[in-house]
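Dear Dr. K.,

Following up on our conversation at the group meeting, I've run the structure prediction for Sialate O-acetylesterase domain-containing protein from Aliiroseovarius zhejiangensis. I'm pasting the input sequence below exactly as I used it, so you can double-check it against your construct before we proceed with anything downstream. Let me know if the numbering doesn't match what you have in your notebook.
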Amino acid sequence: MTDSDKPARGVLLKARNGNVIGFDKTGLRMRLSDEVIADIGGRLNMTHAPTPVDPSVLGDVQAWDVRRSGDWYLFTARLPGEQGICNFRRRVEPLGDTAADILANPSGGLFAILSVGGTRRATTSDEVLRYPYHVLTTGDDLGPAGASGTETVTATPDLQRLSEQSRDSLIADEIIARRHAEFRALPVIYARSETDNSASITAFATGPALANFARTVSNLCAAAASLGVPPKVLAVGLDFTLEALDQDGTAWRNGIYDIMARVTDIFADNGLRKPLFVSTFDAGTHSLSDNPILRAQWELAWNKAGHDHVFSAPGYMFAQDEFGRPTPEARQQIAEMDAFAIEAANTDQDWSCPVLLLAEREVDPKLIRCRGQALGAFVLDPDDLLNAGPSCGFRLEGCENGAKITAVSVDADDPNDLLIRFDKAPKGDNLTLCYALGHPASSDQMPANRGALRDDWHATSRTGRILHRWALPAALPVH
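The predicted structure tokens came back this morning:
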């Protein structure tokens, strides 16, 4: 066939609603659906060269190099906070009834610290963030603690800065501060907690907190899409212990496993990777030092049931007010310990508080060996910083002859074994060795439970206190 015989135009592919691919002398011609055209237009709108804009559109802000890119103003500015001169953005048109907030420009993704729990997790305070434009929450005017289960979270891609702080926002601020000190890229972190006032693990599993959490995860993904970056969840806080008033340790443990499975499913439904769960091992209050649920936490320390879960710290290391809630300094310290655990897990490093696993009698009837595991050698704090006393936080339950602990030491041949000596051979059919459990009520700011066992890790808190990785409470049957 010669060139003169070739058709000048024609159809290569037809569909019931018309021609899809044709050709003419200019080349191939495609007919695309309105949906495809809209998608391409949106992508071009996100990637086209930003248009310079007069800085006055931002108001009385020290900003320059203002450009419009799609639905956003992008600019460089010097704003309050420790971030220094950074790149920021603000929506051209607000999505809600209030003016759009200025946000830091995200780098590498929209990161998130999320949590789900009981009423204590909903506590907020008025700390001032060091990086107020880098820590954000859902743009629904409910703040970082949501509505505590009193309202239904609605769908929105909007983002807001914070007027109050939750545990999650303090963790986010701490992570950003450490990266800033190391001259690393500063992430933008979405912080949100969903809670309710459930009084049992069964009610919590079917209550509004988890339903709202599912919407929050989808809102995070929508917000990331509006910014043109992927969502990346650093951790999910899990906080429901003393709120469970039914006092069934086995039911509580199984319920926590179920909740972790449901959260994992929510993540999968939104295309997110398996979450890291982070908790503080609850050690009770000034007057409450022992119950089945406090004890049931121990199994989570070694039996993850296939989930990524870590205890960042035991609660007995943090001061409390008269209502059993962390003091302002303790809130900061808890956030710091959470941040250490989260950063370690997200950089493929290990984080584990010392865990006691087994108590057994020695040949010497006055001696009980307590076996455990840790990331380093056990340390019995020489200064007894938490006032655990000469027993180092240990006590023997079920002893029928009044045997007393006379010495606690680390075994010289095994740095993760403790030797606990008594004044006489303990007797009883159901001896249980307890650590940081069941102590008498305290009269100071610290919880009733005390301990002196830790590893050699330490860090200096912003509060000036030296933080240690103390051992988790345990109740071990003596074999």
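Two things stood out to me. The chain has four domains: 3-47, 51-91, 102-346, 355-477. Helices lie at 34-47, 167-181, 201-206, 208-227, 249-269, 292-302, 328-346.

Best regards,
J.T.
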